[in-house]
Design goal:
- The protein has 10 helices and 9 strands.
- 36% of the residues lie in helices and 16% in strands.
- The chain has 298 residues and is of the alpha/beta class.
- The longest helix has 27 residues.
- Bound molecules: adenosine monophosphate, fe (iii) ion (2 copies) and zinc ion.
């Protein structure tokens, strides 16, 4: 890829992890692209949870001078590297063929799992007297999109139970809450193999985001390299400076591409687009290892 100059004349911003309203972001895909333009993003990846439903609308909205990396964030389950039960992790897949049969089937299964589990969480809360109904939550999930706890969080805000989405997570929706219900996520090696088989590249999303609960030992990341893991998200809002140092060293030692991204979710989170960015050399390495769909130029 030719050297980027930066749409605003500044250091280029390459934001490789963002969510639209096709999953649990609040901007429709075209609105995400417009917000990215306004924020000075040069290269935007759309990475909704377990869906590629936003790809076409984002591509259609791409302005001249901006590049679009089409991707998704896959819900996975992984050993932690300790003697304890597995943990939920996220795998970013970029530039894979969205029609690949295994991906179509697994994303569809996961979206159904998401609905099933969101219904159960809502029912448990309603049974405990919270003024919330399944219909209230799913009124906020447009057809064809990927449901998640942030939709329930918004319904709880609308019902006056909490003041904000983040308060909903801190008080009621976090992973150790009595209302938490797990979903049957994809084994992480299966997800990596699927992404590779579809011509894409796999990057381990926020592997040390401890704020969300348990995280994997660094050795687990290294063990995924033979399965086809290509990169690791180093600069992420939920990583401490120490986590970033550790992950950057690990990436260097094991030939993993180190990325940085905002994990923007619109108004469901406070992080701004371009809050973190990926170096162009890292993007070039990722793109060089794909054969699925191209990076789109506006
Ligand atoms: P789910 O996909 O249903 O398991 O819900 C997880 C999603 O909830 C994450 O992808 C984030 O978008 C969101 N989330 C997790 N923790 C928080 C938090 N503390 N504040 C706001 N959103 C959060
Ligand atoms: Fe999310
Ligand atoms: Fe994530
Ligand atoms: Zn994300």
């Amino acid at each position: 890829m030719a050297a980027l100059t930066g749409v605003s004349g500044h250091r280029p911003c390459i934001d490789l992890h963002t969510h639209s309203a096709a999953s649990d972001g609040t901007d429709p895909p075209a609105g995400l692209v417009a917000a990215a333009r306004a924020a000075g993003v040069d290269v935007l990846a759309i990475t909704d949870h377990d869906t590629t439903a936003g790809w076409d609308a984002a591509a259609a909205a791409l302005p001249a001078g901006m590049l679009l990396v089409r991707g998704a964030e896959f819900s996975c389950i992984s050993p932690t590297g300790r003697a304890e039960r597995p943990v939920s992790v996220h795998m970013l897949g970029y530039l894979f063929d969205p029609a690949h049969h295994a991906i179509v089937a697994e994303q569809s299964r996961l979206r159904e799992e998401r609905v099933r589990r969101l219904v159960r969480i809502t029912e448990k809360m309603a049974a405990d007297g919270y003024p919330i109904a399944v219909e209230d939550v799913f009124a906020l999930v447009p057809p064809g999109t990927s449901a998640g706890r942030p939709h329930l969080a918004r319904a709880l805000v609308a019902a006056g139970v909490v003041g904000s989405v983040s308060e909903a997570f801190v008080t009621l929706l976090h992973n150790r809450s009595p209302y938490y219900v797990p979903k049957a996520d994809t084994p992480v090696t299966t997800a990596i193999e699927m992404i590779n088989a579809a011509g894409g590249v796999a990057v381990f999303a926020h592997p040390l985001a401890r704020r969300r609960g348990r995280v994997v030992e660094p050795s687990v990341i290294v063990d995924l390299v033979p399965a086809g893991l290509v990169g690791v998200e180093v600069d992420h809002p939920d990583h401490t400076p120490e986590d970033r140092i550790l992950l950057r060293r690990l990436a260097t030692e094991h030939g993993l591409v180190a990325t940085g991204s905002s994990d923007y979710h619109g108004t469901n989170k406070t992080t701004a687009l371009c809050a973190e960015s990926t170096p162009q050399t890292a993007l070039d390495e990722l793109v060089g290892r794909t054969s699925g769909v191209p990076v789109l130029a506006g």
